[in-house]
């Protein structure tokens, strides 16, 4: 073999090696957490079957795909503190242990909300509303006990959930009626006292709608001005194929970012079913009667809608990535379509397709689309 031929062979081998190495390094990530590493953590809300290991398929997906978890229900007041002197910490303890085992960013949801809170919280023995001091004390004890128990282990708490009406005014919840407007700052102060390191979030839905967004902006501005330890705003993200527009989502995130708080997308799911309510909402108390017209994909999702959902997910993740300096977490509200609350809300028994994994735990087109958005940004 001539020196020249040998040299050529050597170059060819080197070129082959470079191609192999490049292919290996540019290979698309296979998990959401990997695709968005360095931008934000990607989470899932998990249910009791997943927390206790009964849903093995779900657990495998969670472990492989996500680097954050939220408790879909187990830390809500009615579950964790059903009676005045009874706390139920068994499932929450297992929830936190699950997150620690997987080295995840662990979220607590939620401390002060008007839903999924027992009636006794607001009442005395005769059934009348308690006074301001009594309710403040109950709120304080609850927050101290629950947040205190997981101090340093739950990294972020949804402190106040859904305090606003659609027109941006404060919701007339028992919290507001009994304590007054400062119930919000008190809740944040108590949570901060119980765990000074924890991130503390104001969480709500439909913040993309102008009136509600303005109400939330005014609220956060006021809290910040008063030195209340609010660190982030949770945009729930119970979205549809059309709402909110990409421009609207973009503008909403920017508006909160300007106030100096971080933004989390805390409960993302995208419904492809016909909207059953007049108004865009995620009000858990909303109930709409069954109607076959509202359940068009009971036997499967047409490919065209599958593609539409994939594009929609990609567009929204594009917006979140654009704001990676302020968006610290994007959490899907469930793991597979079979788990989603949107199968039963606001209409019971629909077949809904709002998440990234299908009913048999397989990744959907939307999953691939979301991975691609994350991967492309990395290689830019
Ligand atoms: C939902 C859960 O997913 C359901 O399982 C439960 O029956 C009702 O609550 N906004 C929130 C979440 O902050 O806690 C709600 O979760 C969905 C709307």
Summarize, please.
The chain is an alpha/beta fold and 380 residues long. It has helices at residues 3-26, 32-35, 48-51, 56-65, 77-80, 90-101, 132-149, 174-179, 183-194, 210-225, 246-257, 303-322, 365-379, and strands spanning 41-46, 68-71, 105-112, 156-161, 199-204, 232-235, 238-240, 262-271, 327-332. Residues 72-73, 161, 236, 267, 282, 284, 341 line the site of (3S,4R)-3-hydroxy-2-oxopiperidin-4-yl beta-D-xylopyranoside.
CATH architecture of the domain at 40-272 and 330-337: Alpha-Beta Barrel
State the CATH class of the domain at 40-272 and 330-337. Answer: Alpha Beta
Secondary-structure element string: HHEHHEHHEHEHHEHEEHEHEH
- What portion of the residues fall into strands of 2 or more residues? 5-15%
Structural class: alpha/beta
If you average the pLDDT, what whole number results? 94
* Shape, per Cα inertia axes: globular
Largest sheet: 8 strands, parallel, barrel
Strand order within the widest beta sheet: 1-2-3-4-5-6-8-9
Oligomer: single chain
Question: Low-confidence parts lasting 5 or more residues at pLDDT below 50?
Answer: none
Kindly, what is the distance between the CA atoms of the first and last residues, rounded to a whole number of angstroms? 43 Å
- Overall radius of gyration: 23 Å
Ligand types: (3S,4R)-3-hydroxy-2-oxopiperidin-4-yl beta-D-xylopyranoside
Q: How much helical structure, as a percent, in the residues?
A: 40-55%
> Number of helical runs?
13
Kindly state the number of beta strands. Answer: 9
